Amino acid sequence: MRFLKHTGIFILLLLLLTACNNRQEVVTPPWGGNTDNAASSEFDLTEIQQAGELIGLTLSGPETYYDYHGAHLGVHYLLGERFASQIGTRLRVEVCRDTTELLARLEAGEADIIMFPVDATDSLSPGWRLGNDKPLLTEALHDWYRPQMMDEARRQERQMLTKPRVRRRVFAPMLSRGVISHYDAYFKQYAHQIGWDWRLLAAQCYQESTFDPNAQSWAGAKGLMQIMPATADHLGLPRDQMNNPEQSIAAATRYLKELEAELSAVRNPYERQNLALAAYNGGLHHIRDAMRLAERDGRNAHAWNDVKTYVLRLSQPQYYQDTLVRNGYMRGQETAEYVDNIRERYKKYKRSAR
To answer: Which pTM does this prediction carry?
Structure first.
């Protein structure tokens, strides 16, 4: 009896173990399906919407995608933003070097869509390409797109670029003989901390906001020194203090100090200031591109007048597509004028204020 009892227990345990093993064989992993199926599963419209992000590939250029004072522009980018909004997601853009990289990365599944006219004959889209495994996303794009949207996006961009970049009240360049603005004490205090002439900082402030503490750009920059929200976060400037005159000037000098540190190889203080001002306006990454091109061509990469030549040339394909250029197209005219105008105003301030 004892033997039969033990045998029965053994058989019961064996059946339980067999059942457990059989269950383990059909358990699915957390991402659904078995491992082999998961590797080949489609990531189509529904999955993109669940992830909340549409990943688009493009090339840098005036029609496609570029950075302008912290804002992203380009007709194809603006269309991509609209389409992402249409399907209920945000847009993440990744810039490639050429069409070969665009196609290879799409084929590898690293993105959802190419926002560049690689299929120019496709009248049902802006010439974009989508992965073959995304029929629902393709259908959504074709249902949404209308050819007139290209012209609408061009008008939108043109309006953004031609209207005044900064909404501000225009104050006189000087209050009176010897007094530049209501904020001279702040200019003197904070310019001293970075070794600048306070009148140069005042000239920059007038160029940014005409001394209007409530000035705001369409890109979101605010205050006397027109600091972008993301830059304010980086500098420790609370967003509710961006219009505070002293806080804006203090944050701007911290930023200028950072830019000068990044440009520490430029030994001449005058030239380092010019390049820091250019970076403040146009972005350090674009200024570094211009400096690399200047050095390549035997020009002085540490002199503003030489670098300015390439800041202006970065709007031309043969330059912004150069292999030395890491950050693509730049609307350099404004940055060139920005530095030169500040220097001209600074000369006048030196004659009139002490």
So the answer is: 0.81
